[in-house]
Automatic annotation (TrEMBL):
Organism in which the protein naturally occurs: Glycomyces luteolus
CDD domains to which the protein is assigned, alphabetical: LuxR_C_like
Protein name: Helix-turn-helix transcriptional regulator
Gene Ontology annotations of biological process type: regulation of DNA-templated transcription
Pfam family, one: GerE
Entry keywords, A to Z: DNA-binding, Transcription, Transcription regulation
Domain HTH luxR-type span(s) in chain numbering: 13-78
Transcription regulation listed as a keyword: yes
Length: 82
């Protein structure tokens, strides 16, 4: 167990300023599964531009910089599982 966990401090992914919408959570789960923007758009019956907007919102709300960090958040919080 990490010292920060023992001290009761929140992990980086628990410090979300704004909760994600259900659609944003869904997009994050699909990113964590390795889908491209085009594949996510097809899966959700959206346009690629809409997916990009959702991803930008997810990044802003989570305070992350890229898809890898979105995927790390999704796996770490149990949004996706093996």
């Amino acid at each position: 167990m990490l010292a920060a966990d023992r001290a009761g401090r929140r992990r980086w992914w628990e410090a979300i300023a704004e909760p994600l919408s259900e659609r944003e959570r869904e997009v994050a789960r699909l990113v964590a599964r390795g889908l491209t923007n085009a594949e996510i758009a097809a899966e959700l019956f959206n346009r690629t531009g809409t997916v990009k907007n959702h991803l930008a919102n997810v990044q802003r709300r989570l305070g992350v910089r890229n898809r890898v960090e979105i995927a790390a958040w999704a796996w770490s919080t149990g949004e996706v599982s093996a």
